[in-house]
Amino acid sequence: MIGFLIKKTFFDLWDNLFRVALVNLGFIASLALPVFVPGLLIAVPALSLAVTLIGVLWCCVYLSAAALSIKALSDYGSFGFGDFFRNLKEGIPAGIFMCFFVFIIFVMFTVVMPFYLDMGSLVGLFLAAVIFWTMAAAVFSFQFFFAVRSRLEGNILKSAKKCFLIFFDNPGLAVFSLVHNVVILALSLFLALLFPGPGGILLYLDEALRLRLLKYDWLDANPVENPAGPARKRKVPWDEILIDERERTGTRSFKSFIFPWKD
User: Distance (Å, rounded) from C-alpha 112 to C-alpha 251?
Assistant: First the structure.
């Protein structure tokens, strides 16, 4: 499943390179607000802090709207400027929640954990460890938050719960996805976030969730006699589940990537 996930993400990314690049350009412009503007207002600390917070909030709302738009690419479709601007309003609640989550993570790792570590006791070390692993689980889980909000119904709290369920039921995918996204982000910095950039990461996460949901559809269609048993842990026949997806995605030669009009 992982191999096909990477393949499909790359194909969809290549086919929609211009759209993803525009999403990335918009994010780069948005990032300028919390990164560069506060430095110009350093003489007024309160205003500088307010601009930083507003800028981070806007970046989160922007990514939420981008995730709602990029979802169409995973579904073998496309999106335009009108779709993106309509998704901005819909993405506000998820953006606010993600901004709050980023703030909590920042406070926990920069204020709370150092406080307990500085206690110099086993109790302090234990509490710091608990906070670290709790925050780690939250990071692994909430990397799928925008994709969950885009694909699954429910309010913010239900979406948050589903993120944790996805992580604990698919820890291997969650760990691989976070490592994958960190590597992609690091590589994107060499291209000034233009490619694959945040848009490419959002596309990968949506593809990952979309394909993973096919597993649950298969489990629901193939129940076991003993629901209390290891029903969700049995071997999932990915080759069978992904037959239609593989047919729709197809295969391509290197020539078809560079000169698609010659096929």
Answer: 50
